[in-house]
Amino acid sequence: MDFLTNFSRIGWDVDDTLIGSRHADEIADYIRTNPRGQQHFIITFRSHGMQHRVFTDLAAYGIDASHFVSLTNCPDAVYEAQGEPYREWKGSICATLGIEVLVDDDTENVCPGCDKYGVAHVHPDDLFIAPEFVARPRDAADAPGSSFLKAGVRKCLDTDHSAASVGFARESRNDWF
Predict the structure, then answer these.
(1) What is the pTM for the complete model shown?
(2) Which DSSP string do the residues of 89-108 spell out, in sequence order?
């Protein structure tokens, strides 16, 4: 988790990162104790009402809304459309909120946006890899769309980001705090 000490504003994915990942308990401890006084944000692809269950689901890990600045969920229309707007959504939202790093297991669907908007991305498993192993080239099987991992930050080198940006609605729902 030392990698996260480089950032003051951290975005967290929900499913298979905060909930259901092999390191969910350690991640929850880090957020709960907040040893560096960082600001934590939830950025989730949950939509169509599923976002309203986030804090119910997080209760099993001992964290609640008080541990986060905000929760931003994917607009239903972006979720349904998939494609470029979906793949760029988390990076765009992180940049808009001033989030410096996104911790998310869904490398394939967050790298395009993180790369485009200059947001660091780290897979939750990589937070627990010894630093001497993190800066090695990664296997193609490590993650679809991910070409290498350096200092804990995944970059998607095989994705073409030159296409014109596709406009989409941004939606933040904080009414359930």
Answers:
(1) 0.76
(2) HHHHHHHHHT--EEE-S-HH
